[in-house]
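Task card 7
Instruction: Convert sequence to structure tokens.
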Amino acid sequence: MEDVLRPVIVIGGSLAITVLIGWGADWLLRRIDARHPETPLWDLLRGCRLPLQVTVCTALLRGSYDTIKAQAITTHQTAISRLLTLVLIAATAWLAIRVSGAIVESSYSRYAASAHDPARVRRVRTQVTLIQRVVAAVVGVVAASAMLLTFPAMRTVGTSMLASAGILGIVAGVAAQSTLGNLFAGLQIAFGDMVRIGDTVVVNGEWGTVEEITLTFLSVRTWDERRITMPVSYFTGQPFENWSRGGTQKTGTVFFHLDHHAPIEEMRAKLREIVQKSPAWDGRDWSLVVTDTSPSTIVVRALVTARDSDDAWTVRCDIREQMITWLRTEHPYALPRITTAPAVQAQLPATASASRSGSRREDHFARFDDGFRKG
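Output:
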């Protein structure tokens, strides 16, 4: 009877204590969050409830399983002890990653709520994201190393590996040269403010928005919702356009190829009317000038400003559509035309015509005289 009750008491008691601690921690965090709504830290820490319960339950079982005198547990005591140790290490690493992520995310949220510069907010967001990934990678490596050291065979291997650490370091450095280059490039991007999450960039002729930055790659979402994944080392070794660095304001241009009779002053008035009605115009500046000319057309450039690249694209499309419609309706003569009239033959002067007819008459009589002599 004792062999049955003791495992039930140990396992059931561990589970009951785990549930009680998880419920108590969640209740306490909920109360603190209600009293301090200005910081999201306490609400974010509530997401650590599951790894906390797993850690507590594993620790309780690890410390009390040897009190169970059951036959199966006594036989496999070493394997059970090692399994619980591995689970405890993994659960502790999971809890550490969740807690650190909650702290970093809370700090970013408070900064973003008080900051007024969108560029600095994007910069901090990029740094926070990479810091979270670095912390997770470091905790994962430490946890994996601790789990491997629980095996006696791995301790012997580790001792022998320390003797050849220099050679292994050189070999690993040569083999992982590209990976290490991307890793340091990711850190350089994060803290060098070269490119940030949310920036509008142009790479390899593709225009898009930076959607994700990791320690090894960077993802750009194009305007047609494609994703371009590139190594972060590209942005430290190749030139690229960053339309968001130094501000998101943009200047857009629209070119019209028109006839020489195009009404320029009326077009300026129409452009003013279009931009004033467009919600994408930021109200800073607009202009319309003739920038070039050819024997058949003139080039008219309409310039307009916008808050960002998306608004610049929208206002350019509005100007292009409305201006062409207005010219076609009100001033159709201003649109370019192709001349298809027949060519006019050149008229010869009178003296040249008389001399040419005289020479033709002399040739005719010469041919007649030659034929008469032969006959």
